[in-house]
Amino acid sequence: MIERYDSIIVDITCRIMVPFIQLFGMYVIFHGHYSPGGGFQGGVLLASSMILHRLSLGYKESYLKLPPARASVLGTGGMFLFILTALTPIFFGGVFLDYGFLPIPGLEPAELRYYGILIAEIWIGIAVFGCLVVIFDRLTERRLD
Amino acid sequence: MKAIATIIIAAFAAVMIYATSGLSVPGDPESPAAGNVSEFYIENSMEDMHTPNIVTSVLADYRGFDTLGETLVIFTASLACVLILTRRVDRD
């Protein structure tokens, strides 16, 4: 189990860095259509921000920000919603993962695929974020003996 | 038992190393990997999903199954970590 690192410099630096890393992670997820990036890379950045938070501020404070149970809910929920999003076109006569078949008026199939990819990438990012934080939490779990 | 396992692993490694001699040169335009679908992806990506980044359109749409599998791999890894590393109370 990680205790708080007793240094004012580390404390303040990590407190300032964490939101910006999270912002950059979200930028990487949402800007994946135009630049290198996507759900996996953005999710890893989000997870690394939480791991930095856990490493520098200790579990007592960091578990208030993101409890381990909520991280596992994010991981499984993101995975489930990604599969659900991928399955949705099947119910409208399409094929798996082809969002061009969704019956949304005013959008041509290419634009539907554009937004479908974006939504799928968001779920992938959340799933990767949750799964990596769960792995870190399990590895640094408190030993009771 | 250990000797048998070593022999099997060595034989498998020998087969794999022999198989690498049949791989195509990276970047070769005549190789099978570069000939069939790459041109289709490059030509049709913009019309099919209005995405300038071809890598994203290949990963998330043309080969969405691959992305699904990758996400499942990470999910399975975290599941294995939870199952193996979680401290359980001994009931005895």
Detailed description of the structure:
- The complex is a heterodimer of chains A (145) and B (92).
- By secondary structure, chain A is an all-alpha fold.
- Chain A contains 4 helices and no strands.
- Chain A has helices spanning 8-30, 39-65, 68-91, 109-139.
- In chain A, α1 (8-30) runs antiparallel to α2.
- In chain A, 37% of the residues are buried.
- Chain B has helices spanning 2-20, 32-35, 38-49, 54-62, 64-85.
- Chain B is built from 5 helices and no strands.
- Chain B is flat.
- Chain B has 92 residues and is an all-alpha fold.
- The interface between A and B is medium-sized, with 40 and 29 residues.
List the helices and strands and how they pair.
The complex is a heterodimer of chains A (145) and B (92).
Chain A: H1 8-30, H2 39-65, H3 68-91, H4 109-139
Chain B: H1 2-20, H2 32-35, H3 38-49, H4 54-62, H5 64-85
Helix pairs in contact in B: 3-4, 4-5
Descriptive keywords:
heterodimer; A: 145 residues; mainly alpha; 4 helices; elongated; B: 92 residues; flat
- Largest pleated sheet of chain A: none
Q: So how many helices of chain A?
A: 4
Order of helices and strands of chain B: HHHHH
Largest interface (C-beta under 8 Å): A-B, 40 and 29 residues
Order of helices and strands of chain A: HHHH
Helix content of chain B: over 70%
Distance from first to last alpha carbon of chain B: 34 Å
The multimeric state of the shown protein is: heterodimer
Total strand segments of chain B: 0
The description of the largest β-sheet of chain B is: none
DSSP strand tally of chain A: 0
Structural class of the helix and strand makeup of chain B? mainly alpha
Kindly provide the radius of gyration of chain A, computed on alpha-carbon positions and rounded to a whole number of angstroms: 18 Å
Low-confidence stretches of chain A: none
Number of domains of chain A: 1
Low-pLDDT residue spans of chain B = none
